[in-house]
Write a structure and sequence with these properties.
The chain is mainly alpha-helical. It is built from three helices and no strands. InterPro entries: Ribosomal_bS20, Ribosomal_bS20_sf.
Length: 93
């Protein structure tokens, strides 16, 4: 248990940060899971692109809030965008 005032404040502060980070991490996880489920169910391209836009917004906001590093957010956006674009125009060999 924290004894000093600053230690008590640090406990409160870390609890607040933890709940804030968990909120954003859940939103990220849910939005990416929606895209994965859409890819698995072979949904329409328009629906998938709408889900991608939502996920990109969530990733951008999370990186702005310092919950997620901006490079990781960019990698995830690129990964899912390339998966969806591969469905739009299949690569010919």
């Amino acid at each position: 248990m924290a004894n000093t005032l600053s230690a008590k404040k640090a406990v409160r502060s870390s609890a607040k940060k933890e709940s804030h980070n968990l909120f954003w991490k859940r939103r990220i996880k849910n939005s990416l899971k929606n895209i994965e489920q859409g890819l698995k169910d072979k949904e329409d391209i328009k629906v998938l692109t709408e889900k991608l836009v939502v996920a990109q917004k969530v990733l951008d906001k999370a990186s702005k809030e310092k919950v997620l590093h901006i490079n990781r957010a960019n990698r995830l956006k690129s990964k899912y965008a390339s998966k969806i674009s591969a469905l739009i125009k299949p690569i010919k060999k």
